Amino acid sequence: MTQLAADAYRALGPGDAIPSDLVVAYYLQDRKLRISVARVGGRLYAFDDLCTCTDEACPLSGGLLTQTTVMCQCHGSRFDITTGAVINGPATRGLNVYEAQEVGGSIQVRA
User: Fold this and answer.
1) What is the pTM of this model?
2) What is the mean pLDDT of each run of 10 residues along the chain (111 residues)?
3) Distance of alpha carbon 58 from alpha carbon 76, whole angstroms
4) How far apart are CA 49 and CA 41, in angstroms?
5) Which of 15, 77, 95, 100 could form a disulfide with 84 if both were Cys (CB 3.0 to 4.6 A apart)?
């Protein structure tokens, strides 16, 4: 894969699919990766959709979003979606975060 391809943004869907203060999950088939995208204060944030609490997959897109904090619905871990950092556990490992933008009405991420 070229550096250009690795750095490229990819379109996920229409911008109106992500209203303010809501988390929407997307699946990147080629990377076998689930990403959540949230819109908070007019800004987009993209991060891993699966919580790091346990070995069991628990989607953060189903959790509670409060400003820039998302709480895992399964075990209650809370993460800062701007940095991926764990705010409180049981999770001890943070989330990957990705660049996100809206261009021409389309949500794009660099993952």
Assistant:
1) 0.88
2) 58 92 93 94 95 85 96 94 95 94 93 79
3) 11
4) 20
5) 95
